[in-house]
Design a protein that fits this description.
There is one protein chain. This protein is about 30% helix and about 20% strand. The two termini are about 45 Å apart. A hairpin with a 6-residue loop joins strand 9 and strand 10. The protein is an alpha+beta fold and about 450 residues long. It contains ten helices and 16 strands. It has a five-stranded antiparallel beta sheet with strand order 2-1-16-15-14, sandwiched between helices. Strands 12-5-4-3-13 form a five-stranded mixed beta sheet. It has a three-stranded antiparallel beta sheet with strand order 7-6-11, with no helix packed on it. It folds into two domains: about 210 residues, DD-peptidase/beta-lactamase superfamily (Beta-lactamase, 3-Layer(aba) Sandwich), CATH 3.40.710; about 180 residues, no CATH class. Helix 6 packs across helix 7. The chain is globular.
Length: about 450
C-alpha cells in the first residue's frame, strides 16, 4: 500500500463533499426561485404594475431569484439605506456638531448640519452646553451651506408638512415648531415663535389645525376650541437671522454674527453617537435627519457643506462597484428623481451587513415586521420578528428592502420594489407581506 496516496485521497473526499454541498445549495436555490416565480405570476395584485425583486443569501452572496432586478425604480425612503451605509463608513462613532476656534476673548463657531442639535428625540446637547458654558463672546459664522432649503424634485406645497423641514447648516429643534393644546390654548415650542401665532376668526375650519404662510413665519389657526391633547409639528421658515435670534434666546446670552472662512485647524465638538442618529432616521423614516446627514458627511472632506458633493464623494469612494449606476439626488428619498435598481439595493444591504458585522445590532436599527417603526403594522404583530427592512412610500409607489430570517435560520437579503400602481396601497402592502411571510415559512 502506498501511504503517500492517503493525503490525496482525503483531499479528494473533502473536495467531493464540498461539491455535493454546493450542488445541493444551487439546487435548493433554483427550487426556491421557481416557487417565487410561480407566486409572482399568480399574484393578481403584483401583476398590474411594474415590480422589481431580488433575493440573495446574505452569508454566501448567492443570488436566489431576480425579476426586473436590473431595472430602475423610484425608491422613495429606501434611499435612506444609502445614507445609512455612507454614515457607517464616514462617521461610525459619533457625529460632529460644531467647528470652532478661540481668538482672544471670542469663540467663533460654524455649523456642520448636525440634525441632533437640540432635536427633541436625539437630545443633542453637548454642543449647546459647550456654547453655554463658554466664558468668551460667541460669534456664529454662516455660509458653509449655500444650497436650497429643499432638495431636488421636492414638492413645494409640502412646506408645512413636518416631513419636509428645511435644510440648514445649523438646525435648531429639528427646524420644527411643536404645537400643543393646553387648557384650551395654543402652546408653542420654541417659545421664540409665540408672537407669530394669530387666531383668525375668518377661517371656517371644522377641525382645529395651524397653517403657515409659504414664505413667512406667520401662523394662523381658527377661532374654535383647541382640543385637549392636540399636537402638531410644522416647519418654520429658516434664515440666518432666525437662527442667531433663536440661539441667543435658548442660550440666554448674546450670539453675534461674523463672516469668516473656517480654517482647517478649527476644532470639533461631537454631539451624539452615530448609531443613535441612524436608528432615529431609519425606524420612523425621518427625512430631516437623512438630509442633514449628507451635510455632516461633506464636513469630513471639504470646507463647504453640500449634499450633492457628499453623494458624489460617497458614490465614487464606497459605491463604485454597484452593478447598475444609480441616480441618487437626495438623502431621504423625497425626490422622484432618485432611481435605484433592486440589484443595487441588494448589494448595499450586503455592504451594510459586512460593515456593521453584528446582525443583532443591525436589526435593532431597522423597522421590524409587526413590532417597530414603519413595519409595525405591515406584518402581523410579532414579539419575535423575522423581517427587518426599510420601507419607501410615495403615491403609487411602495418598496421594502432589507433582511428576512427564515424558519430554517437562513438570513436572506431582499428588495421588492413596486412602481406606478393604482391598486390601493393597503392591498399592495398586504400582498408584499404575504410574499415575505411565504419566504420565511418555506425556505
Amino acid at each position: 500500500m502506498n501511504r503517500n496516496k492517503a493525503p490525496y485521497c482525503s483531499y479528494y473526499y473533502v473536495l467531493a463533499g464540498l461539491c455535493i454541498i454546493f450542488m445541493a445549495s444551487c439546487t435548493a436555490n433554483k427550487q426556491i426561485g421557481k416557487k417565487l416565480n410561480t407566486f409572482l405570476t399568480n399574484s393578481v395584485v403584483l401583476n398590474d404594475h411594474l415590480v422589481g425583486f431580488a433575493l440573495s443569501d446574505l452569508d454566501d452572496g448567492a443570488v436566489i431569484y431576480e425579476k426586473n432586478a436590473d431595472k430602475y425604480f423610484i425608491p422613495a425612503s429606501n434611499t435612506k439605506l444609502y445614507t445609512f451605509y455612507a454614515g457607517l463608513q464616514i462617521f461610525p462613532d459619533s457625529l460632529p456638531s460644531l467647528r470652532y476656534i478661540e481668538r482672544g476673548d471670542s469663540l467663533i463657531f460654524w455649523g456642520t448640519g448636525d440634525p441632533s442639535f437640540l432635536e427633541e428625540r436625539l437630545r443633542g446637547i453637548n454642543a449647546f452646553n459647550f456654547l453655554k458654558s463658554s466664558s468668551k463672546q460667541l460669534f456664529f459664522s454662516p455660509g458653509r451651506y449655500r444650497g436650497n432649503v429643499y432638495g431636488q424634485g421636492w414638492a413645494w406645497d409640502d412646506y408645512s408638512d413636518p416631513s419636509q423641514a428645511e435644510i440648514t447648516e445649523l438646525p435648531l429643534f429639528g427646524n420644527l415648531i411643536s404645537i400643543k393644546g393646553n387648557n384650551g390654548r395654543v402652546s408653542v415650542n420654541p417659545a421664540h415663535f409665540n408672537d407669530c401665532f394669530t387666531k383668525d376668526s375668518l377661517l371656517s375650519y371644522q377641525t382645529f389645525t395651524v397653517d403657515r404662510k409659504v414664505d413667512e413665519n406667520e401662523f394662523t389657526y381658527p377661532a374654535i376650541p383647541v382640543p385637549q391633547g392636540y399636537t402638531q409639528q410644522i416647519p418654520y421658515r429658516t434664515s440666518t437671522a432666525t437662527t442667531v435670534s433663536m440661539l441667543s434666546d435658548t442660550l440666554k446670552r448674546a450670539v453675534k454674527l461674523i463672516r469668516m472662512d473656517m480654517p482647517a485647524t478649527a476644532k470639533t465638538i461631537f454631539n451624539v453617537p452615530s448609531e443613535h442618529v441612524f436608528r432615529e432616521m431609519l425606524l420612523p423614516s425621518d427625512n430631516f435627519i437623512a438630509e442633514q446627514l449628507l451635510l455632516v458627511y461633506s464636513n469630513k472632506f471639504q470646507q463647504n457643506l453640500s449634499g450633492t458633493d457628499a453623494i458624489s464623494y460617497i458614490s465614487g469612494k464606497y459605491l463604485s462597484k454597484l452593478p447598475n449606476k444609480p441616480r441618487w439626488v437626495d438623502g431621504s428619498g423625497m425626490s422622484r428623481m432618485n432611481l435605484f435598481s433592486p440589484r443595487d439595493m441588494i448589494m448595499v444591504l450586503h455592504l451594510i451587513d459586512s460593515t456593521v458585522h453584528n446582525r443583532e445590532k443591525l436589526f435593532s436599527m431597522l423597522p421590524a415586521g409587526g413590532k417597530t417603526g414603519t413595519l409595525k403594522n405591515a406584518y402581523p404583530k410579532n414579539d419575535k420578528p423575522f423581517v427587518f427592512a426599510k420601507t419607501g412610500t410615495f403615491s403609487n409607489n411602495y418598496s421594502q428592502s432589507g433582511y428576512v430570517v427564515t424558519k430554517k435560520r437562513r438570513v436572506l437579503s431582499f428588495s421588492l420594489m413596486n412602481n406606478n400602481f393604482i391598486t390601493p396601497l393597503a392591498k399592495v402592502k398586504e400582498e408584499m407581506a404575504r410574499m415575505i411571510i411565504y419566504i420565511h415559512d418555506n425556505f
